[in-house]
Amino acid sequence: xxxxxxxxxxxxxxxxxxxxxxxxxxxxxxxxxxxxxxxxxxxxxxxxxxxxxxxxxxxxxxxxxxxxxxxxxxxxxxxxxxxxxxxxxxxxxxxxxxxxxxxxxxxxxxxxxxxxxxxxxxxxxxxxxxxxxxxxxxxxxxxxxxxxxxxxxxxxxxx
Length: 159
Ligand SMILES: *[C@@H]1O[C@H](CO)[C@@H](O)[C@H](O)[C@H]1NC(C)=O
Ligand SMILES: *[C@@H]1O[C@H](CO)[C@@H](O)[C@H](O)[C@H]1NC(C)=O
Hints:
The chain is of the alpha+beta class and 159 residues long.
């Protein structure tokens, strides 16, 4: 009985406390959340989660960046240019055909992180993207990429 009712209970809890408790956040229905407007942390979490959904699940970098990223994006990837449009264009050549699995993500104190397993041959790679938000808008990005060596000694290396 418990086994049968648990999923329904869990769904109920998710829908009541997850979706319906989302606060009314100014600007969420607008085409762009940049330039930045003020937002509390609950709204920022919702915005960051929408950004992740668009970029990593729907794999639509242009939409994700036009909606969520500042035109003057500060970019720290050693091979990327500055600014929203250059990075959106670069990602739109990579993300739609890439194979990866989102492992976890979090948002706290203006910083959002996502940990991704990227399918590479012969071993998967670990990617961490770190984003800084100013109010409603993502303004800065760092990334860290690690390849799993074939001779890894830890049986649970990286994942
Ligand atoms: C992604 O995986 C699919 C199915 O396994 C495969 O056909 C495709 O070539 C892979 N794409 C990349 C970029 O590895
Ligand atoms: C794993 O392989 C790399 C590259 O060949 C080598 O530099 C490293 O010493 C090796 N590490 C171990 C623990 O075997």
